[in-house]
Amino acid sequence: MLPPLEAYREFIYRIDELSSHITRSTLVFYTIGTATAIVTGQIEFTGDVVLTIAEALSFAPDHRRITRYGYQVWRGSEKLYWYDPQPHPNDPTLAATHPHHKHVPPDIKHHRIPAPDLSFERPNLLFLIAEIERELLLS
User: Which of 25, 54, 109, 119 has the lowest CB atom count within 10 Å?
Assistant: First the structure.
């Protein structure tokens, strides 16, 4: 389950402490009412890599979760890949992680692969930061 609202807010505002590769964070945590929040902004990394984040979150009692998200990874002006939960029920290759998937080259808009590490139930940013480090910064 997602941590409580205040703990997630602190996590967002301390995200730059998670990696020495993070050079800047512009993430903003907005509350909308008592049990809903939005996170938007970017995490900038060394190597001109940027993770753009948009999350809608519910902190309802006993039902804390990410309700919508979009994550994009860029190097300079090139979009490398993105994640979204837009359902594609007619694509059987995505069934195992429905609706979570990753858009990758070639034909980045239409080429999708399963995203087993993403969830509505836990923070996704830890995985995304680790993936960027592993795939783009340390390789």
Answer: 109
